[in-house]
Amino acid sequence: MDIKTIYENNDASERSKKIKELKELLDTCIEKGNIEVDSVFDDHNYYKASAVDCVIYYVCGYITRKLAKRYKCEECTTFFNSSTEASANPVAALTNIKSKGWLLHPNHSLFEFIRYIEDLFNQYCKYSDVFELIVNHITENNKQFWFSCSLHKTDVMSDIITYYITMRMRQYSVFQNREQNKLSSKKKKLSKLVNT
Ligand SMILES: [Zn+2]
């Protein structure tokens, strides 16, 4: 299923049916384990307009769940708990249609931060030291991330960066390999033509 077509389709009932199907797919993915979340990124067509924001928003909810399990102090919990409220933000379209309450609305500050990392990823993904380049960029530009707990702010920030970039790098290399395989099979076909 293509997320982009969901948002371009004006038929509301058809759209909500598709979103429901997608949501069920995502439910299944997350139950199987975190690596499956990467498949949300698989189709590069998602990297267009608001569809990408919707995916990032969804991934934010996923990261929030991971972090909420790890950081349980009162101030941290305040930040992560804000994520259960429904959102009027258009990028929340996917997440707004709830399934038994597991879909989380990420904190706005978290969403903006991950969106920023995604932009940096697109900027640096062709370099082998992409992780280092992104971290350097964030520190050199003194990128601010609002977080309710001053004690765990740095830890949470570095976890977010690590989770997100790891996820994106894995997806990116899968995509690159697939493109490479397509290319080499084309070459094989061509060489067969030449040899015969
Ligand atoms: Zn804390």
Explain the overall architecture:
The chain is mainly alpha-helical and 196 residues long. The protein has helices at 3-8, 12-32, 49-70, 74-81, 93-96, 108-124, 130-140, 153-195. Helix 3 packs antiparallel against helix 4 (74-81), helix 3 packs across helix 6 and helix 6 packs parallel to helix 8. The longest helix has 43 residues, at 153-195. The radius of gyration is 19 Å and the shape is extended. It starts with a helix and ends with a helix. Residues 30-38, 43-49 and 98-102 have low confidence and may be disordered. It binds zinc ion. Residues 71, 73, 75-76, 149, 151-152 line the site of zinc ion.
Number of E-type strands: 0
Amount of helix: 55-70%
Unreliable parts: 30-38, 43-49, 98-102
Terminal Cα separation, in Å? Answer: 40 Å
Report the major sheet. Answer: none
Secondary-structure element sequence? Answer: HHHHHHHH
Report the β-strand fraction as a percent range: under 5%
Average of per-residue pLDDT values: 74
Number of helices: 8
Global shape: extended
| Secondary-structure class | mainly alpha
Ions, cofactors and other bound molecules: zinc ion
Radius of gyration: 19 Å
